[in-house]
Amino acid sequence: MPGLPTVLPWNQTLGETIPPDTPHAVSVSLPTWKSNVGYEEGEQWVVDKMQTGYPRFFIHKSIQRLAQAILTQHGNTETENAMLVASKSCGTRCRNFLIKQNPSVDQSVIRILEFVPHPDRTTSADMTRVRPRLTAVIYPKELWPTAKVFWQHTGEGISSRQAEFCHRAYDDGIMAEHSAVAHSSTPRLSKGPKRYQRNTSTDQTHGNGANGHTNSDAAAGETGVPDSAQFVEERFGRNLSIAFAAQAKLAIRKRIAGSLTKDMDLPQSLDEPHDSGNERGRDVPGFSVEDVYLYGMGMNAIFNAHRCLMLSRGEMPSVMYGFPYVDTLKVLEKFGPGATFYGFGTQEELDDLERRCEN
């Protein structure tokens, strides 16, 4: 067909993950200049082949599948979309942004659904592990362009790994919509899962999960059949089991603070005394690991730094001086009272900035 690129051997990787066959890759193959241009211009011969993409520009298919599963039960797949975020507060910010950018929309059609662990299907072992929870913002499909801006510039969306983890829990009834959960229920005590087994706690006497899916994962957990995907992640991807999540976060915060410098595995590294010679507190009085906050992605850290400044100093216009990271500028422009951008670094811009600072 005229206009389509010539088929070349190295062009056969178009849309594949980088590295190949990596389910949670954050890079995608655009092997030719023409495919890069086609991606930027949204040409179907490129877009239709994309298996993945950069997380803030391409909603991972695992996230899309979970969103569709939630819509099937709690919405309308024909007329609505679901944006999946990490918490109810994130969902509230998303809903407020959609309403602010679309003032004529009927606010009642933008709903927030919170999904939490179901107490009747939670084992005693689950209480010490990462527990599945997320928030879905359900909105009309015509608001997708605005929702995409929120997803891209705030970094509030869930990750593909969290989507897979929560999807298993949702299918097995371990995670349920908040209003459907009986708060008076108590966790059911049962044997905890072994390493490399899918963590599930559904009643094995039932043939189907809460949403009509078979409990094959649950059966695997009881019979000791290993979860191969998790094994590959932990053995070859060098990703820790989620059982170490809290310890890993603390270790990262300690390393950023400079109080943990030795190359040691968990949990032994957390028992090491503070390395006061390297701790950054020597330059910042009172600084400690308690002053280090972790976010799921860099853009979310930038977004929340902006939020913290507005909360502490009031919602005042921002200034960005010099060559920008473009999405930082977008955050300043779209999530607050606006920004003045000095993008050339000229003497005139510097003088104007100085005058603003004096006022």
Describe this structure in words.
- The protein has 359 residues and is an alpha+beta fold.
- It starts with 16 loop residues before the first strand and ends with a helix.
- Helices cover 36% and strands 10% of the residues.
- It has 12 helices and 8 strands.
- The protein is globular and about 60 Å long.
- InterPro entries: Trans-sulfuration_enzymes.
- One of its GO terms (biological process) is transsulfuration.
- One of its GO terms (molecular function) is cystathionine gamma-synthase activity.
Question: How do the helices and strands line up, and which of them pair or pack?
Answer:
Blueprint: E1 17-18, E2 27-28, H1 33-40, H2 44-47, H3 61-74, E3 80-85, H4 88-101, E4 111-117, E5 134-140, H5 144-154, H6 160-171, E6 175-177, H7 216-223, H8 228-235, H9 245-257, H10 298-313, E7 318-321, H11 326-334, E8 339-342, H12 347-358
Parallel strand pairs: 7-8
Antiparallel strand pairs: 1-2, 3-5, 4-5, 4-6
Helix pairs in contact: 3-6, 10-11
Biased composition (Polar residues): 198-217
GO molecular function, one term: cystathionine gamma-synthase activity
Region (Disordered): 181-223, 264-283
